[in-house]
Amino acid sequence: TFTQIAFLVDCWQGKVHERSFIHYLLFVTYFPHLIAGPVLHHAQMMPQFANPATYRADGNKIALGLAMFTFGLAKKLLIADPLGQYADLLFNGVHNGVQPTLYTSWFGVLAYTLQIYFDFSGYSDMAVGLSLCLGVRLPLNFNSPYKSTSIIEFWRRWHISLSGFLRDYLYVPLGGNRKGLARRYLNLFLTMLLGGLWHGANWTFVIWGALHGTFLMINHIWNARFRRDGKTRSRLTRLLGWLLTILCVMVAWVVFRAESMHAATDIYKGMLGLHGAPGRAFHEFLTLPYRKPEFFQTMLVALLICFTLPPTIALQRWVPQVQSLAGRPVLSKLLTAAMAPATVILLGVCVSKLGTYSPFLYFQF
Question: Which of 122, 126, 130, 25 is nearest to 83 (CA)?
Answer without folding.
Answer: 122
